[in-house]
Amino acid sequence: MNRGSPSWAPSGEGPQRASRILVVEDEAHIADGVRFNLEQEGYEVEVVGDGRSAVDLLTHAEGSTGLPFDLVILDLMLPEMSGFEVARRTRASGNFVAILMLTAKDDGPDIVRGLEEGADDYLTKPFRLEELLARVRVLLRRRRWDGVESASEPLPDVEVGRSVIHFDRFSIETPDGTVTLTTREVGLLRALVDREGETVTRGELLQEVWGLRPDTKTRVIDSFIVRLRRYLETDPARPEHIVSVRGRGYRFER
C-alpha cells in the first residue's frame, strides 16, 4: 500500500495525517478499484459492502482504527439499508463527515433526495477515475475550510430578529428552543449572511455551498431555504430575513 505524501496539507503548514475515507459499495470490483486508486493517492481507506455496516461505523464507532473518517463515498443502492438512509442516520447522529453520493443514473429526484438527506456532492456511475479523485480533493479541502474541523478563531454569532445563529455550534437559538443545523444548512446561511443585502444566485449557492456546477438542475436550494425559514422567520410564508429575488436567487436581511 502506497501511503505517499499527506493527502491534504495547506501551503505553509506542516504535514497532516492522511485523510481517512470510508467506501460504501456492494459491487466488489468497483469497491476494490476505488480503494486501490485512493490508496495510491495517499489516503487511508476502509470498505464496507452494506448500509447497516456503514451506519454502525458512522454512528457508533469510527472505523477499525478508532480514528474519525474525513469522507464517505456512498453508493445509493445497497443491501440491507439504502444510501439515503445511511446519510440520514449519519446526520441525525451528529456526524457531519463529508459525503460523496454515487448514483447509478443521472436521476434528478434521487440526486435531490440524496442532497436533502445530507450528501455534499454526487457522482453518476459509470464515472471517470480522474473526476472521482477531483471530487474527493474538493470535498476534503472544503471540509477544512467550512469549519467542520476546529478553526483557530470561532465565527461570530449573528442575531436575526429574535433568534441567534451560532455558527461555531452548528445551531440557531430561537424563542421556541435550539435548533441543530447540518453542515449544508450552516454553509448556506454563511453564504447568505456573508453577502448581507446582496442577491446571491442559485448557481452561486450551488457552487459555493455544495461544490456543484452552477447549471446543475436541482431544487435542493429551495428545499433548504424552506427549512431555514422555518427556523428564522416569524411567518415563513412572508419571509423578512431570507427573501426571494424572483428569477435570480435569495437575499439575506436582518
Summary?
This protein is an alpha/beta fold and 254 residues long.
Write structural notes for this entry.
- By secondary structure, the protein is of the alpha/beta class.
- The protein has helices spanning 28-40, 51-59, 83-92, 108-117, 129-145, 183-193, 202-210, 220-232; strands spanning 20-24, 44-48, 71-75, 98-103, 121-124, 158-160, 163-166, 171-174, 177-180, 199-201, 242-245, 249-252.
- A five-stranded parallel β-sheet has the order 2-1-3-4-5, with helices on both faces.
- Strand 6 and strand 7 form a beta hairpin.
- The longest helix has 17 residues, at 129-145.
- The chain starts with 19 loop residues before the first strand and ends with a strand.
Low-confidence stretches: 1-15, 145-152
Shape, per Cα inertia axes: globular
Output the number of helix runs: 8
Main β sheet profile: 5 strands, parallel
| Structure classification | alpha/beta
List how many beta strands DSSP finds. Answer: 12
Give the C-alpha Rg. Answer: 19 Å
Lateral arrangement of strands in the main beta sheet: 2-1-3-4-5
The helix content, as a percent range, equals 25-40%
Average pLDDT reading? 83
Intertermini distance: 53 Å
* Percent of sequence in beta strands: 15-25%
SSE string, helix = H, strand = E? EHEHEHEHEHEEEEHEHHEE
